[in-house]
Design goal:
Elements: H1 5-8, H2 11-18, H3 27-38, H4 41-53, H5 62-79, H6 87-96, H7 100-106, H8 114-117
Length: 118
């Protein structure tokens, strides 16, 4: 699978991959090296700030909020090589970002994880 990556990497990323002296044995090793090479600390900080401040807008449907929340979470997981947030932190932030009337409906059910809350 890692051999096919070269066909998808363009420009600077393709050159970086072609010039590697040691091949990667697995996806995790490639991902770690790629992220170290092509992301900076500011990107990670910005995404974490967005995560801590995400809110459902007054006119926004819950489905739209769920989509935004999950997209942001995926981006954070792509950048972080380890699990930066625990399941409990993810659940807490998801609920905190909902409109007040939805929070009042969800909390009595005491969801144990994000999927239960959704």
């Amino acid at each position: 699978m890692l051999r096919t990556i070269l066909y998808f990497l363009k420009g600077t990323a393709g050159e970086w991959f072609e010039n590697l002296t040691t091949p990667f044995n697995d996806w995790t090793a490639f991902k770690t090296a790629f992220l170290e090479q092509f992301t900076d600390n500011n990107t990670s900080i910005t995404l974490r700030n967005c995560f801590h401040n995400i809110k459902q807008k007054p006119s926004e449907s819950v489905m739209t909020y769920i989509g935004k929340f999950n997209k942001l979470l995926r981006r954070i997981h792509q950048l972080e090589t380890n699990d930066y947030y625990s399941d409990a932190q993810i659940l807490d932030q998801f609920i905190a970002g909902l409109k007040d009337k939805l929070i009042k409906k969800i909390c009595p059910h005491a969801p144990e994880d994000l999927n239960s809350a959704i």
